């Protein structure tokens, strides 16, 4: 028997149109929210720049976005914008790699050995503070003290049923303090300045063809790195392509100033977003412990940075940023903004980042099998 199909009446068509309009309005509101958030971050960078704060566009954007997040109006940064920020930053960092800079790599092995020892010492002393002074569980303290590789740390924390919120606070607070204070500290010790090294004002600009090669090549290589789960794949891909292109003289010049500055603002947004889902009550209960752990870890990092500076023949400012227990993206970009050696700083943070990402899951698994009391 045939089934009669009811023809849509005027009300059905009206409801469909209403739903369509509602979706379009929601999408428009989301777009406007993203634009407003980016503008607020840019205003924060501009304010810091006018005040003469080092690394103004990076730290100012991060601070402004965190304050904006307290209003409850913040929105998640789309993955496409995160990748764009990493792509631009990688291209900018690689532009500083010259044949003269490459010739300095021979001084790095000793410094990298010191770095490996420093990572172990930073993790041990910071976790010791959290366990003995703050009363944290050993597992939580160890994960909170790992100097970098946040995505790996939180993935392990979730898998091992650790206190993810407290660990996230300790990790993110360390990164925020470094971004907010380290630039000024570096300037105070005479190792850097409010420079246009990244923004590129007054420097030769890359040709459109050269920039296209770097950006497209960085995207392609980053996609490959992403498949094999390498940390910060787009940043790493763009940095490698840009470094090779500039190191061989195939491409010359810096990223256009407006584009480079936009990349810094987006990275500031990316850093600030890590604070967006942390509850205020959790933040208040963990902030003292996190600050104490950071102070201990940074003190140890400073001692090893002095030794590395002597071994590698670089300035203390370079080694301080290279050994600072912050994120790969933020610290390497910070080095370039401050007029430091992004190659030296970037190599050290990449080795630390990948080393922690590879070793930490294996070490935590071994620790819990051999010493179950470590999780208590």
Give an account of the 3D structure:
- With 376 residues, the protein is mostly helical.
- It has one domain.
- The chain contains 15 helices and no strands.
- The chain is globular and about 60 Å long.
- It starts with 9 loop residues before the first helix and ends in a 6-residue tail after the last helix.
- The relative contact order is 0.17.
- Mean pLDDT is 80; it is low at 1-5.
Shape: globular
Major pleated sheet: none
Radius of gyration: 23 Å
Distance between the termini: 70 Å
The helix content, as a percent range, equals: over 70%
Beta-strand residue fraction: under 5%
Q: Name the structural class.
A: mainly alpha
Average pLDDT, to the nearest integer?
A: 80
Output the number of helix runs: 15
Please mark out the parts with pLDDT under 50 across 5 or more consecutive residues, or reply none: 1-5
Number of domains: 1
Beta strands, count: 0
SSE arrangement:
Elements: H1 10-50, H2 56-69, H3 79-94, H4 99-102, H5 108-132, H6 138-145, H7 150-159, H8 164-188, H9 208-227, H10 233-247, H11 257-273, H12 280-312, H13 316-323, H14 328-337, H15 342-370
Helix pairs in contact: 1-2, 1-11, 2-11, 3-9, 3-10, 3-11, 3-14, 5-6, 5-12, 5-15, 6-8, 7-8, 8-12, 9-10, 12-13, 13-15, 14-15
Task: Give keywords.
376 residues; mainly alpha; globular
């Amino acid at each position: 028997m045939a089934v009669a199909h009811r023809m849509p009446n005027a009300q059905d068509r009206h409801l469909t149109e209403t739903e369509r309009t509602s979706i379009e309005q929601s999408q428009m509101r989301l777009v406007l929210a993203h634009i407003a958030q980016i503008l607020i971050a840019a205003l924060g960078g501009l304010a810091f720049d006018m005040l003469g704060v080092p690394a103004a566009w990076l730290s100012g954007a991060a601070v402004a976005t965190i304050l904006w997040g307290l209003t409850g109006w913040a929105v998640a940064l789309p993955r496409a914008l995160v990748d764009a920020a990493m792509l631009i930053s990688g291209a900018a960092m690689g532009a500083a790699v010259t044949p003269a800079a490459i010739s300095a790599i021979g001084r790095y092995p000793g410094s990298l050995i010191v770095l490996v020892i420093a990572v172990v010492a930073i993790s041990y002393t910071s976790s010791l503070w959290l366990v003995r002074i703050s009363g944290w569980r050993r597992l939580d303290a160890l994960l909170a003290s790992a100097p970098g590789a946040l995505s790996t740390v939180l993935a392990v924390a979730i898998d091992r049923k650790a206190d993810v919120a407290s660990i996230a606070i300790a990790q993110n607070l360390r990164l925020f303090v470094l971004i907010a204070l380290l630039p000024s500290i570096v300037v105070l010790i005479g190792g850097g300045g409010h420079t246009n090294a990244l923004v590129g004002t007054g420097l030769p600009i890359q040709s459109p063809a050269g920039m296209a090669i770097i950006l497209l090549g960085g995207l392609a290589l980053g996609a490959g790195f992403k498949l094999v789960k390498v940390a910060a794949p787009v940043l790493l891909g763009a940095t490698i392509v840009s470094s090779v292109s500039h190191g061989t003289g195939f491409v010359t010049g810096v990223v256009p100033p407006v584009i480079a500055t936009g990349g810094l603002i987006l990275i500031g947004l990316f850093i600030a977003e890590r604070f967006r889902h942390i509850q205020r009550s959790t933040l208040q209960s963990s902030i003292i412990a996190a600050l104490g752990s950071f102070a201990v870890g940074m003190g140890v990092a400073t001692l090893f940075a002095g030794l590395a500076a002597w071994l590698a023949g670089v300035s203390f400012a370079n080694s301080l940023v290279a050994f600072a227990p912050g994120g790969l993206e933020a610290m390497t970009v910070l080095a370039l903004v401050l007029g430091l050696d992004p190659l030296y700083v970037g190599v050290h943070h990449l080795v630390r980042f990948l080393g922690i990402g590879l070793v930490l899951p294996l070490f935590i698994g071994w620790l819990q099998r051999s010493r179950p009391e470590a999780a208590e």
